[in-house]
Amino acid sequence: MANIDRPNGAVAVDTITGAPVTAKLNAYNVDVANATAIFPGDWVKLEADGNVAPAAVGDILIGVCAGVEVAPPTKEDGFLSNNNIGVSELPGYLPALTAGVILVTDDPDQLYEIQSDGTITIDDTGDNAEIVAGAGSTTTGRSAHEVSSTTIVGAAQLRLIRPVKRADNDVTLANGRWVVMINEHSYRTAAGA
After folding, report:
1. CA distance 67 to 104
2. Positive or negative CA dihedral for 104, 40, 35, 69?
3. Nearest-CA neighbor of 91 among 66, 67, 75?
4. What pLDDT, on a 0 to 100 scale, did the predictor assign at position 82?
5. Which among 42, 94, 158, 165 is placed 20 to 30 Å from 177, CA to CA?
6. Pick the residue with more confidence: 83 or 100?
7. Of the candidates 123, 112, 94, 104, which has an alpha carbon nearest to the alpha carbon of residue 157?
């Protein structure tokens, strides 16, 4: 049976050390000059000014956006004080050209589950691959980041740790799900951003 093609970015699932998964989140600023929306599940990079931005192929990664910090609504925003916090008004992602704060899983030992954009075989376990930074959905708030099946190379952003072991995941077919870790991490690479 074919794998479902449903990219949703990277999700923290384990650690390489075997330590308990805490997926510790740290807050990072995004400046208004950021021209691309950031969705939970998107890979992000650290910029020279200390802000973060969406990552692209070849960037050194800092981690994955796990959420967007939202200021609580106020009466001035048109919300009443009767617990009507206007959840439908909150997009769940940080729109482009919007300054804000995102929460990032930035532990270099963090392992993530992510879908491949094609077929990555079991023989590729331990190899490295680049990210595919697809545009997320402003309707669902879902990331479209994947791991590239065509850039299995010596030096790349992600390390392929193992295929996800589930009955609905067949890595002999396209869109298999893999456990990966950041190979080119800002905290472990000599030249940061």
Report:
1. 7
2. negative
3. 67
4. 46
5. 94
6. 100
7. 112
pTM, two decimal places: 0.87
Characterize 70-104 residue by residue with b for buried, 16 or more Cβ atoms within 10 angstroms of its Cβ, and e for exposed: eeebeeeeeeeeeeeeeeeeeeebbeeeeebbbbb
Q: Is 40 exposed, middle or buried (0-12, 13-18, 19+ CB in 10 A)?
A: buried
pLDDT tens for residues 148-178?
999 887 789 999 999 999 999 999 999 999 9
CA distance 99 to 184: 26
Evaluate whether 176 touches 122 at the Cβ level (below 8 Å): no
Six-digit token pair at 184?
Answer: 């080119």
The yes-or-no verdict on residue 180 having pLDDT over 50 is yes
Opening angle at CA 151, ends 184 and 178, nearest 5: 75
CA 38, CA 134: separation in Å to the nearest integer? 11
77 phi/psi in degrees, rounded to 5: -75, -5
Query: What pLDDT band is residue 85 in, cutting at 50, 70 and 90?
Result: very low
